[in-house]
Design a protein that fits this description.
Blueprint (H helix, E strand, L loop, with lengths): L3 E10 L3 H15 L3 E14 L2 E14 L3
Antiparallel strand pairs: 1-3, 2-3
């Protein structure tokens, strides 16, 4: 039997929401192993001088606990 846990994280990118998601998962995976999936809870943008300057995501990442 496996036990999973979920952690909420935030990540950002100047390129896109997809890039922010990839960066967040990559960074999270450096510390936590056995990442299984993520649910995107929220997406936001930062606007500077009438232009989107940053894409931000909040996500819940699920990972399997070691035995």
């Amino acid at each position: 039997m496996s036990i999973a846990k979920t952690s909420e994280i935030s990540a950002s990118s100047s390129k896109s929401f997809e890039d922010a998601i990839r960066k967040g998962i990559k960074r999270f995976s450096k510390t936590i192993k056995r990442v299984e999936g993520a649910w995107i809870k929220e997406q936001k943008v930062v606007v500077t001088d009438d232009e989107v300057s940053e894409f931000r995501v909040t996500m819940k990442v699920t990972f399997i606990l070691d035995d």
